[in-house]
Every structure is written in structure tokens, then in C-alpha cells.
Amino acid sequence: MSGHGRARRGRARKRRGNIRQAGLKIFLTAIIVAGGLLAGAIGASRAPGPGSGEAQPGKSFQGEADVGQVPLGEEKTGELDAVKDSSSTQAGQPQKEDWRLILVNPWNAIPEGYGVDLAQLKNGQAVDERCYPDLQEMMDDCRDQGLSPLICSSYRSQQKQEALFENRRNSLLAQGYSQEEARAEAGKAVALPGTSEHQLGLAVDIVDLSNQNLDESQEDTAVQGWLMENSWKYGFILRYPNGKSALTGIIYEPWHYRYVGREAAQEIYERGVCLEEYLQA
Ligand SMILES: [Zn+2]
User: Fold this and answer.
1) Cα of 64 from ligand 1 centre, angstroms
2) How far does Cα 245 stand from its chain's mean position?
3) Is 17 exposed, middle or buried (0-12, 13-18, 19+ CB in 10 A)?
4) Would you write out the chain's pLDDT as a tens digit for each of its 281 residues?
């Protein structure tokens, strides 16, 4: 057992400011000046404090997450090793103040002082404890189909996100990108610190044990096939769908799932929209 549970106190503040009603035009315009906006977003949010299981040294990563190769066969059973009995799947109308619908993207940083109560998973992962029961159920049901899903990234502290971003930026600089280009380009694949959903504890990157590459080949795995069809039933959406990058600000990521609650997930799935579009409706 690892040192569990001691996530930072604090509660998700109901900051309304982070959910913008900005229209499509604004998003499209914003993407053009994203570089500048991203720069402005730095330092806009505070880390929620000591992370857990964050101390994995410089692994190679692709896309948004930081998965290294995890040995086959590891981590077959339940995600959680701390038992928590939160029966916290609150029903009710999806409201914009709803913690499940908090919008974090390149234009909406995490509210200052945002804190997360974490549930520790095996494999060094952790998520907001409120989404844990649904996550566990989804993983269990996926495995019941004979599949082998693997959570390779989950909650990240501000420091962790900063390190990921810097790694990415540096590798682009090494490839000959200018400072400005490297920053903008890195921001498309690794969210700028303060603007990653992983810092909410409501996002997980899930891969197929047989293919742990965070690239579009993930889309063809059996695990993704199942998740894309079924994750909404557990309150998770494929957060960065193909063709929505102009709205989400993030490349197509057929591995990143975001918890939004079951009602919202169903509607988002059925309408084929992304979270930004859903929140504007
Ligand atoms: Zn992710």
C-alpha cells in the first residue's frame, strides 16, 4: 500500500468565472492568438499542494500524458487500494456550477486555490474521490469483456504539469523550433500548467495494455473501441474528439477521458458534441 488518502483539504470552489459563455467565434479567434493567451494564463492558478505518486522521473511521453511503458501483466484488478464508500453520485440537473462540469481548457484556467480530495488508485494513480466509484465500475465492466484497460495518467499536481510541459517544450526547441513556436506547439499536446484537466483529478488517460502508445493508433485498440462506445454510461466522455481541436484547443486524443457525470455524458455522447459545445448550449 502506498501512502494514501491524504489529499489536500479544500473543496472545489464554485467559481463561476471559469465557465465562459464565449461563443464559437470567440473560440475560433482565440485559437489564433492562443499563444498569447496561453502566456497570460501562466501563474493564473495555484497548485493544490503535495501530489501523490507524482515522483516518476523523466519518462518519455507523447501526447498529453506521461506514460512510460508499464510491464504487461501488471495491474489487472481493481484500481483502488483505499476503500472509500462515497455514494456520491449526486443526481440532479447538470448546472454550470456543477463540479462535474467545470471547464478547464487553454482559455479557462483552474480556479485559484482549487483543491482535490483524492482517492488513491493502484499503480500510483489518483483521482478526485467523487468520480472514483464510476471509474471503478467502468474499469470492472471493461475487464469483464475480456479487455485490458490501463490507466496511465490521472491526477497531476501543478509541479508535475509544469515538468511535463517543460519536457515537451525543450524537445521541440531541440528540434529547431523557435521559443515562441515551441511554446505554442507544446501547448497543443501538453496543456499549459494551470489549464490541464488532469489537475482537476477528473481526467484519466486509459490505454490498452497491448498498445501503450499515446497516439492515434490507440483509436484502433479493443479497449478504446469499448470505451468510446460505453464510457458515457459511467459519466466519462472522450474529451478531445477528432475534429474538435479548434474548440478544445487540444489535439485528438483517443485515450483521454473526462468525468462529467452520467447525465451530461449521455447528452454529450448522443449529440456528438464536445464539452465546450455542451456548456454553450
Ligand atoms: Zn490526458
Assistant:
1) 5
2) 15
3) exposed
4) 333 433 443 333 333 334 344 443 444 344 344 444 333 333 333 333 333 333 333 332 233 333 333 333 333 344 554 433 333 334 444 455 799 999 999 999 999 889 999 999 988 999 999 999 999 999 999 999 999 999 999 999 999 999 999 999 999 999 999 999 999 999 888 888 999 999 999 999 999 999 999 999 999 999 999 999 999 999 999 999 999 999 999 999 999 999 999 999 999 999 999 999 999 96
Is position 253 annotated as part of the catalytic site? yes
Global pTM reads 0.67
Tell me yes or no: is domain 24-280 CATH 3.30.1380.10.
yes
Fill in the DSSP letter of residue 240. Answer: S
Grid coordinates of 134? 464510476
CA of 201 to the centre of ligand 1 (A): 11
199 CA to centre of ligand 1 in angstroms: 10
126 Cα–ligand 1 center, Å: 13
Ligand 1 center to 256 CA (angstroms): 4
Instruction: Tell me which residue has cell 467565434.
Output: 25
Q: Which of 64, 79, 185, 253 is catalytic?
A: 253
Give the other-Cβ count within 10 Å of 71's Cβ: 7
